[in-house]
Specification:
alpha/beta, Nucleotidyltransferase, domain 5, 2 domains, five-stranded mixed beta sheet, 12 strands, globular
């Protein structure tokens, strides 16, 4: 059987999945990300691929969705919020460990590829994909293909500065060396920081904040309302520049109740038009969209040739 393995390298977990020729998910497995240990990350990815192949009984192609991207100048990882990856030859190291070619792509680009192929974005000519999880990333898919840009940074919206109306008086440093990047507010850790700033309580997980809001806790309700506003204002700048048919939200924070609908409702008042046709939706494949898109970096024909 023609099979492809996708790996989604996230800040807190690494997911591996096996897909068949029709991009149906056959099996999946997750392990924790050893986030500050580059050799351990390579070993974890290699172990996932090996175990998935052993379970399935077939050799597969391997595609990897990663934070950041490969520099077109050096081929090394850059701009990853899992900072131990930066400056590393991740593609070369994994190809050597797995003894085959691997394909690497930004995780937001993998999200868009997944949702374009059978997901929530099949009807979009211009799609902006958003990952709001451990970090905040974006990707652009236009007229049938990914838009990478002259410097291969198209869609890197998470490291724009937030609009002045979003940022409170206390500035937030970002791992990239700048301050008040979109990521410092819209990532999971950014939301938790906003929550803590609303009162005395703190929370270790976004899901806990959502549960407290459902229970009527004022601090949580205020933090989530603030987050909805921040996301809408930051996406309004994307709409003004790109005017996409569709914005697809993915990543752990995208699972907040009514987030997509809330953003879609207020966008028309924020963007520069008398009518906003952009739809805002949640990824059809949820947390598995990234790993599915990573597997699809290889075609089914590629998988057959390398079986």
């Amino acid at each position: 059987m023609r099979v492809r393995i996708g790996i989604d390298l996230g800040g807190t977990k690494i997911e591996g999945a096996v897909l068949d020729a029709e991009a149906r998910l056959l099996r999946a497995r997750r392990v924790a990300t050893p986030a500050s240990d580059y050799p351990a990350i390579c070993a974890a990815i290699t172990g996932l691929v090996t175990s998935l192949e052993a379970e399935h009984g077939a050799r597969a192609t391997v595609g990897i969705g990663m934070p950041g991207s490969l520099s077109p100048r050096t081929g090394l990882v850059r701009n990853a919020n899992t900072v131990c990856l930066n400056g590393r030859p991740l593609g070369e190291d994994l190809s050597r460990l797995l003894q085959r070619p691997v394909r690497l792509e930004n995780d937001a680009n993998c999200l868009v590829l997944s949702e374009i192929n059978g997901g929530a974005a099949t009807s979009g000519q211009c799609v902006f994909g958003v990952i709001i999880g451990t970090g905040t990333g974006g990707a652009v898919h236009v007229n049938g293909g990914l838009l990478r840009g002259a410097s291969a940074i198209a869609g890197e919206w998470g490291h724009n500065h937030v609009p002045w109306s979003v940022a409170p008086s206390a500035s937030r440093p970002c791992y990239c060396g700048s301050r008040d990047c979109v990521e410092t507010y819209l990532s999971g850790p950014g939301l938790l920081r906003t929550y803590a700033a609303q009162g005395r309580a703190s929370a270790a997980r976004v899901e806990r904040v959502a549960a407290r809001a459902r229970a009527g806790e004022v601090q949580a309700v205020t933090a989530l309302a603030r987050y909805h506003e921040q996301l809408a204002r930051c996406l309004a700048s994307v709409v003004n520049v790109l005017d996409p048919d569709l914005i697809v939200l993915a990543g752990g924070v995208s699972n907040l109740p009514d987030l997509a609908a809330s953003v879609a409702e207020v966008l028309p008042a924020l963007a520069f038009s008398d009518v906003i046709a952009t739809r805002v939706v949640t990824a059809r494949f949820g947390d598995s969209s990234g790993v599915r898109g990573a597997a699809c970096l290889w075609s089914a024909d590629d998988a057959a040739d390398r079986a």
